[in-house]
Amino acid sequence: MAITYERVRELFRYKDGELIRNKTVNRNAKKGTVAGSHHSMGYRHIAIKQEKYLTHRLVWLYHYGYLPEHQVDHINRKRDDNRIENLREVSHSCNLRNCGNRKNNTSGVKGVSFNNAIKMWGASICNVGKNYNLGISKDFSEAVLMRLAAEQCLGWDSCDKMSPACKYALKNNLFKPKGGTPMVCH
Predict the structure, then answer these.
(1) Is the pLDDT assigned to residue 58 strictly greater than 90?
(2) What percentage of the chain exceeds 90 in pLDDT?
(3) Calpha distance 22→67 (Å, rounded)
(4) Domain map of the chain by residue range?
(5) Are 56 and 43 in contact (CB under 8 A)?
(6) pLDDT tens digits along 3-23
(7) For residue 79, which of 42, 141, 147, 180 is within the disulfide window of CB 3.0 to 4.6 Å?
(8) How far apart are alpha carbons 165 and 134 in whole angstroms?
């Protein structure tokens, strides 16, 4: 049986991204303590009647009254930061876009890599399971702008609030937005 809004409100109170127990359940789960434990993937989870729930999904239910149909994304990419202002319901593909750089990324910008064979920077993007080569350049900044333009054309600027390409372009003043108003990538 699925957990309900009423049951979550009965069991817990919310404080700064944590669910605090309203009553003692057993000697390990006492009233006033933070519910749950760390999951192997970095998330927190809570067991209720032998059913495990990801804490961020219960925080969502606590605030909005329903379990999300889609995924709950941690905007700042910190898997144990369950403050409601850090959570948003998104599609699977949007959630995948809001992940950090891969461990083998050496450029610092997702989708931008150096090709040693031709001594040039390449830009690429993956959308709906298909990889697109966006172009190559001797200039790293130009490759970053290729990636950023592709993200914006695909509408990702409304999804990935922390795009490495956007952050790099803004930090290095690579373009001037229309009307002189600073662009905010969100």
Answers:
(1) yes
(2) 54
(3) 21
(4) 5-90, 99-175
(5) yes
(6) 999 999 999 999 999 999 999
(7) 42
(8) 14
CATH, range 99-175: 3.30.730
E strand or H helix that includes residue 140: helix 140-153
Structure tokens at 124: 């690429």
Name every residue whose Cβ is closer than 8 Å to that of residue 19 and which is 6 or more positions away in sequence: 8, 11, 12, 13, 34, 35, 36, 46, 55, 58, 59, 62
Indicate the CATH number of 5-90 among 3.90.75.20, 3.40.50.620, 1.20.1250.20, 3.40.225.10: 3.90.75.20
Which residue type, as a one-letter code, is found at position 117?
Answer: A
pLDDT at residue 162 greater than cutoff 70 = no
In the chain the first and final C-alpha atoms are separated, in Å, by: 38
Phi-psi region at 17: left, alpha or beta (left = phi > 0; alpha = psi -120 to 50): left
